[in-house]
Amino acid sequence: MRSQQILLIIGGGIAAYKSLELIRLLARDGIAVRTILTRAGEEFVTPLSLAALSRAPVHRDLFSLTDEAQMGHIELSRAADLVVVAPATADLMAKAASGEANDLATTTLLATDKPVLMAPAMNVRMWQHPATQRNLARLKADGVSFVGPEDGAMACGEFGPGRMAEPPAILEVIRSLMGAQGQLKGIKALVTAGPTHEPLDPVRYIANRSSGRQGYAIARALVAAGAQTTLISGPVNLPAVAGARLLSVETAEQMLAATREALPVDVAIFCAAVADWRAESVAEQKLKKTPGPPTLRFAANPDILATISRGPHRPRLVIGFAAETQAIVAHGKDKLARKGCDWILANDVSPSSGVMGGTHNRVHLITARGDEEWPELDKAEVATRLVARIATALQGAS
Ligand code: C5P
Predict the structure, then answer these.
(1) What's the pLDDT score for residue 69?
(2) Whole-angstrom distance, CA of residue 175 vs CA of residue 380
(3) Are 326 and 352 within 8 A, CB to CB?
(4) Is pLDDT at 354 greater than 80 in this prediction?
(5) Fewer CB within 10 Å, N- or C-terminus of the chain?
(6) Are 96 and 28 contacting, i.e. CB atoms less than 8 angstroms apart?
(7) Residue ranges around ligand 1 (CB below 6 Å)
(8) Domains and CATH numbers, the chain
């Protein structure tokens, strides 16, 4: 399969240095990058750094004999899945909005029939100027997507909107735009993630340890593959996933209600560490320190995975997680049967594994056909692998 390719146009702004980081992140994800550097861009980054990071020649001239022979402006955009302009300066936006074509960057933008994403970067007053806002509206109407700018301190010493979005944020939008043609296009997915908090009184709660990282990574991978994704999240400290619908909840009962609301879907992945119990009754006022410890009575929480697996509107593919500290496969198999789901991803969360709150995960994929041990992978890679398996399974089933 041909790897995905981005055509990155780098305009002349101080934020151009961030584009180097963007190229590095794209390369890490296996996305090939071709670059066009504008004349003004050359003042901020060198063609040599771009060529070294992208491992490809940098295109600069509209009338370059060698480039035109091998890859002219039409060919450059034809080979790309997406054209990204970062930084998109006020000048580049103005030219693109009016259809000017007097250098390689603007000619390519006019000649392309591929989706275009712009990451604006400019002085706050330039951004707020009616002319720029008019160009922005026109470009949006022409179908151009935007990421940023963000608020913050700027190199010119001012504060306000105008900073180029950070490379990881641009990457997320790129992934979701490319996913629009991805292997899960037309598929609806839901993911539960994070812990649930079960209040005891207005200030105290019980919860399981969960960072939400694995669930968020799965939601991100689903979006990247083009799935219409709902992320149902307990309280976590993570940035939202661009392109996914986020339903934030606190308790298990709220999570179940949100999950039901998100149905019907084709695939549901239950990654949340749902608290098994909640306080039978939540104290209206803060429980006072009495001489002895209080006696708390608990009630069982609904099992969201089992309820959805056995309920109406069952997704075509239901996937659960099993966090275990011992006999991982045996407990995973048992859970598969008890919960009525199709697959279980069982992982070792014993303190020595470092999985809890960490960046890596070692999982077993347990299905009715057997058990498969995956190597230790970054949580993002676990997510990508899982999504590839989901795509294969759903294609096989349809
Ligand atoms: O907590 P337990 O090990 O039973 O979790 C196994 C799977 O069931 C996980 O996928 C978890 O998200 C899901 N689960 C749930 N609702 C619960 C408890 C667990 O959806 N109340």
Answers:
(1) 45
(2) 13
(3) no
(4) no
(5) N
(6) no
(7) 192, 252, 270-272, 274, 276, 301, 303-305, 320-323, 335
(8) 5-177 (3.40.50.1950), 182-397 (3.40.50.10300)
Measured N-to-C along each axis, helices 47-54 and 16-28 cross at an angle, to the nearest 10 degrees, of 10
Peptide bond into 120 cis (omega under 30): no
Helix, coil or strand: residue 244: coil
Please tell me whether residue 25 adopts helix, strand or coil conformation.
helix
Confirm if 362 and 378 have CB atoms less than 8 A apart: no
DSSP 195: B
- Residue 181: the pLDDT is 65
List 268's β-bridge partners, or say none.
190, 318
Question: What does the DSSP assignment read for 129-182?
Answer: SHHHHHHHHHHHHTT-EE--PEEEE-TTS-EEEEEPPPHHHHHHHHHHHHHTTS
| Alpha-carbon torsion angle 162, 165, 166, 167, nearest 10 | -130
Q: Is pLDDT of 397 > 80?
A: no
Give percent of the chain above pLDDT 70.
94
Task: Indicate the top mutation candidate among 303, 324, 334, 344 to test ligand 1's pocket, ranked by most ligand atoms within 8 A of CB.
Answer: 303
pLDDT at 204: 96
Structure tokens at 245: 């619908």
Q: Is the pLDDT of residue 323 over 90?
A: no
DSSP 91-140: HHHHHHHHT--SSHHHHHHHH--S-EEEEE---HHHHHSHHHHHHHHHHH
232, 262 Cβ separation under 8 angstroms: yes
* Predicted pLDDT at 140: 87
Of 91-100, 109-118, 254-263, the one with minimum mean pLDDT is 109-118
pTM above 0.70, yes or no: no
